[in-house]
């Protein structure tokens, strides 16, 4: 599947899930470690590795609000999420995010969190959180990449990121994933800002 086709499937699937809320804008950002993902693909699917660049371009061209961001070893990003209705998270491959989600659920943001199903075993590890979860048929490769230590991209939808925060995060020296430091590195989705609507001209312009 090409990047453009994947983007269109994502739009269709999320729109069907959020039926009755057609006035919402879908923003999809894929944060990935391109170097690490390329190495994994070369070890398992050589052809896919050679096509990764084209896939990234195609996905970004599927919509003006779609983008793939290569953040290197820092997979997570500190982002501000004003005026957000839903966070659709497709990073269930990394069980370390459960710690982050538990914290924000306790803070009262459970109704804003939705999981996009990737693989059955990945979804099962998040089941205890009691979050809504839905699949998009044929969006993900049925053959899961099993090489350890490689970060797979995550899709995060329906939000407007605050890019200065993202850039600041990318400069951090502490490059741990949640699985490595689940209790200390509280990156990922910064849901504490979900109900704060600052008078930010960049945010207002984007919305």
UniProtKB/TrEMBL annotation:
Record-annotated DUF7923 domain positions: 2-140
Extent of the signal sequence: none
Compositionally biased region (Basic and acidic residues): 172-181
Region described as Disordered: 172-207
Superkingdom in the source lineage: Eukaryota
A Pfam cross-reference name: DUF7923
Protein name: DUF7923 domain-containing protein
Organism: Candolleomyces eurysporus
